[in-house]
Specification:
The complex is a heterodimer. By secondary structure, chain A is mostly helical. Chain A has helices at 15-22, 74-85; one strand at residues 62-63. Helices cover 22% and strands 2% of the residues of chain A. The two termini of chain A are 28 Å apart. The relative contact order of chain A is 0.17. In chain B, 47% of the residues are buried. Chain B has a domain at 1-175 and 182-231. In chain B, strand 3 (454-459) and strand 4 (462-467) form a beta hairpin. Classes of the chains: A mainly alpha, B mainly alpha. Strand 1 of chain A pairs antiparallel with strand 1 of chain B, so a sheet runs across the interface. Chain A: Its main location: nucleus. Chain A: Belongs to the DSS1/SEM1 family. Chain A: One of its GO terms (biological process) is double-strand break repair via homologous recombination.
Chain lengths: 89, 528
Amino acid sequence: MSSSSKPSKTTDPKDSSVADKSKEPQKPALSLEEDDEFEDFPVEDWKDSETDVQNPPGGRLWEESWDDDDTTEDFSTQLREELKKNPTK
Amino acid sequence: MPRPSTSPLLAQFLQTVSNARNHQNHEQLSRCLLLSPASLLRSPPMNTLVAELRGYNHKNSVERALGQDWPGFVDVIVAYLEYVKSVHPGVNSSIEDMLAWFYNLKEFMGVLNPVFNSVQGTIFVSVIKTASALFASSALRIDALSKEPRCPCSEAAMNVLLRSFNSTLGERTIATAAPAPTLQALGKKAATIRLANDLFKLYFKMNQIRLCATIHSNIKTASIPSYLYLYPKSEQCTYNYYHGRHYFYADQFVNALSTLERAYALARPRDHQQRKMIARYMIAAAMILGKFPSDALLARPECAGLGDMFLPICHAIRLGDFRGFRRALGDEGPDSDRKQFWVRTELYLTLKLRCEILLWRGLVRRAFLLTRSEQTGVRKKGPPTLDMRHILVLAGFLHGPERVENPLFLGDDEDSDTDSNLGDDETSYYGLRVEMVDVECAIISLLDQGFIKGYIARQSSGPVLVLGKSDAFPPVAELYREERYTEEDVMESDYEGGPFGAHMAPASGSGGGNVVRLSGVKPIGFKG
């Protein structure tokens, strides 16, 4: 099985972190405003060199090998408990 | 003393217009024919001209100056001056004033459109572009301010601009014949993409996304995608954004992702607002196809906040955590703003439907990881297996409300007093008893669509999933490698959405898996 890609440094995606964010003051955790319009660009045109088309950004956009074999974390522990409580044989 | 036949400023104006026409200089003509109230009111010559024109019938002057060889051109200039006369400093002071101004502009467009459509109409191509941008953005702004539910300005704009759009395609161009094709050589088609983008903006706002299909298909028929690079980058980027969103709406995630990636690459790094909009849908499409956003992507300034939204979903998928997924979508849990965000961005239903198969994959894989050690203890020859009763136990656990202490979940769900909104969640098993047949459906879907390599063996104790010896759980992204996987470009499809649509399996060309349900669970929600 493939091992997980390097763990996220910027956000701990576990439940506890999501719950923590909800305890922040009134402003929702989302820093995204009510912004659903694709605005017009400030200029009409620009050079190829200003785009990423020919200069791929440093760092890939996607992680494709994210499967994780670690079964020591909380979620797996909960599941293990559940299996113990419901033996099949 | 008789009034001079033409006021001096008008004569000058008409001379400039005539020059532009004679030199076929559509940009110069556009500079003469200012349209936005701001630009008109800011221009001293135009202010003076308007003052001269008040109470003066300019039609004869225009006819005299521009000649009779092209009456249509005269009509447009006459109409233009009528429009200009109607623009006053108070156009934005009330909804009524804005509406009056809007309808004056619409009148002008009504004269311009048929003339643009004529063979000589190419001279107006830059005017059309400017008019389109102004007309579309004003329509949306005025409807938003007036809060008129029927959105009359947007409706009007859609009709007017569609006519203009169709006119651009009616002209034969020989763009590709030139040694190096140029935008100039495209004639009226130079306005096609701008018009398309403005129409998309209106269609999306008016929730008539289906109408985009005709636009895309007409553009494709005109072979424009093969020379899209000729158009200004802003137009290319915007076009790819809307095209990508339409693919997403039509559940064509492979096409959606590649198109949105192109849009993203075309935008400059400083165009944060546009990149943010693109990134939202690009990341959603990628996730459905088994690609998670990298740290590098999420760290970019335009992606601020997106990690908070998407990473919990990625985490849930990785683990097979159905409960975590419901929290990530805001269906339960402390963070109700999350659901608002997903609904507002129109991602809620698609993610819910399309991530389900990935969650099942994750859960089955996790169940295997947790139970395989049992197997090595026993003398075990042959392929690895997974007793599906284990999956049933875990699925039941994860699909029910979080229990404080209740070892026997099965049988209690009808009575359980949860604080969650069971009624809201029509599209999953949440709150229902998960049966073995549900697990089998999920496993069959996973096997059929290639997420798991193996087969189901029927044993006296119950069904057992027999797994391939190596790589029984190929990485999801592998399944959608473009070389192996082509999506039909069914932009005109009357695809309705939902799991019982045409896209039951990847082979029918959609990208994104589905759980096929056979047992009597609640009907799946509809899209949109």
